[in-house]
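Lab meeting notes turned into a lecture example. A postdoc, R.K., suggested we walk through two folding results consecutively so the class can see how the record format repeats. The first protein's sequence and structure tokens come next.
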Amino acid sequence: MTRTALLTGGAGYIGSHTAVVLLQAGWSVVVVDNLANGSPVAVERVRELGGGDVEFHEVDVRDEDGLEKVFAAHDVDAVVHFAGLKAVGESVAKPLDYYDVNVGGSVSLLKVMRDAGVRKLVFSSSCTVYGDPSVVPVTERSPVGDTTNPYGRTKFIVEGMLRDVAGAEGGWHIAILRYFNPVGAHPSGRIGEDPHGIPNNLVPNVMQVAVGRRPKVRVFGTDYPTADGTGIRDYIHVVDLAEGHLAALERLDAIDGAEAINLGTGKGYSVLEVIAAASKAAGHDIPFEIEGRRSGDIATVFADPTHARELLGWEAKRGIDEMVGDHWRWQSTNPQGYE
């Protein structure tokens, strides 16, 4: 019997790659997206790559009436909740937008799920809930909540809300996936990250410079307590991440209530190391310029992925060269993204 997963934000970067993986694993996929950060072209290419149909609904996750109609039209078994705003720097400048979409949208979704009798959820959380950790690698037992930016606070708030709902109502099976820094693209080069406006994250910024869309990479801070002075992050290939969502869906019955799970590689790379790897993939040096630290950023964070391996039977397989190589294939064959 075919199972159906509803993906909020499924036309976006991580959602589209997860949709492909789910289709290939035999799941039926329904996508809900307001296209603020997604593209209908991505949905078309997901159908092509996944070898199956995708039902697409252009609905904002805050629109409860719209969501109710989607749930009424499909026999949904589980939800993967990607929809939300995701840029750290932008969240510092526009905090109300982030609380409205990320927290308000999650409230609306949970109400509609409860009314529809759907109580299986995989939530797209973030390592930003750990704030500036005093000890790395971080485990799921590391302190959370002392976040350094509004984006991270919205994820922390939604995590708490999910635990409260699961504790109050029973019957919920919720995987809270705290992922680290998704990069890369589908190896076909057909889908990838296509940020609207100036990219807030490092690798899409680097790749847009490499392809000539922007003049140089801005490196924010070289005075962090790291080997080369630049920030260190745990970068994870987006296909590994998508496979982590499939693993979580397949094992939701084993989770009673809500449980947090790190999805990362367990290894960190500095900003300058990423630029060097990307330059190798692109076949030429990528110019960069040093600037001061950016508000909300921290020095070092990377995961301990042991729990994901033990609970989900999942671990990241792809290294930094494959990450930037696939990202470059996407960017070089789609220099203007999906446009």
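The second example is placed directly after the first for contrast:
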Amino acid sequence: MASILFATVGSWGDLFPFVGVAAELQRRGHDARIAASPAWRDIVTAAHTEFVPIGRPIGFDEFRQHPEIFGRLPFGLRAALNRFVFDQIDVLTEDLASAMDGVDLVVAHPAQLAAMNIAERFGTRRVVGTIFPSMIPSSYTVPGGSPVGPWSGTLGRVANKAAWVNASAVTALLFDRPINRHRRQLGLDPIRGAIIRLPLQADAMVVMAPPDIVGRPPDLPHHIVFTSFVGWDGGADRPLTSGTNAFLEAGDAPVLVTLGASSAVAAEDFFDHVTREVVDAGARALVVTGPAPPPEGRFDRDVVHVTDFEPFSNLAHRCRAAVHHAGIGTTIAVMRAGVPHLAVPRGFDQPQTAGLIEKLGVGVTVSWRHRRRGIRPGLERLLRDERLRVSAERLRETLGDDGAPPSANAVERCLNTP
């Protein structure tokens, strides 16, 4: 059996899919380990998976202190990579180099640039594991964060290619210098447009999303494999708390209100405002705050229940709808639950994920900037539009089984490829 190191960066939405696939590979007899910020040790070890701390402990306090990372692509990504990768590149290099000793395969998050460079330097086979194909060039798509496109037809594909050329130039200005400085330190050749090209140079790329949902462009290279959404969130080992379960059983199915994990640290007035709107609309609210403080308003406990964390895999299907930030982990859980979404995207890949929600007909979107006036009409449609509910239920049936087994299959194929 093989030794496989999963190296990730970011928050729970980036970590959880890797834990799910690593656990599946462990069940098959492989030695699978997770390398991530020391802040996430307890989550990984609770899943009975070996944890390798890399870099400094970057948790929710770091997100809270640097709200600029929630900016739109590519500038939010630049702020995040500066804090999580480039500012600690020497420590990451030392920790990852030690962790890769004797490893047969590295599975890296596309933003874990240090891991990709070090694996290349060691001659270790490498797979890039990603959740959403927003930074994979294609003449049928535009880069994640683009305000317009993609366009169809022959001229449309020319315009899409031009958008990717422009994105490559912009990201080269933002990222090539620190990435190539690290590559030169390792004795590697520099790469032009590294943030886009470096993941494509891996032996394989596993997109943990169903192609019939997110769309697989026909011009992608064969080494890019689409699987399905990985639903791991620790729910199998963590049942709902007694207070949450009692609230769910005491009345009508509530509206789930959440900002996930990382986005919750800069919640501003989101929880208080949305909770009031849900109650004023005549619905009950189940508010999952993550690391954010609870809503400030006073609410009847029969109508509003607040908790800091519950695994959405155990919770979302017992709600009638969800108001959330369009983080990919939360979105996957709500899709699998078959309930409609009101997406309020803020940064990272959230606007693109919100666009997918609308495209699939399972929800509506209100921009973060316009949430004060947009939540109420969006919520009213969410609760009253039967088409959204029917579409959400149909999507649940389409998604099928968890994506961890097919994703593990793709990793194993890379192990077995000469």
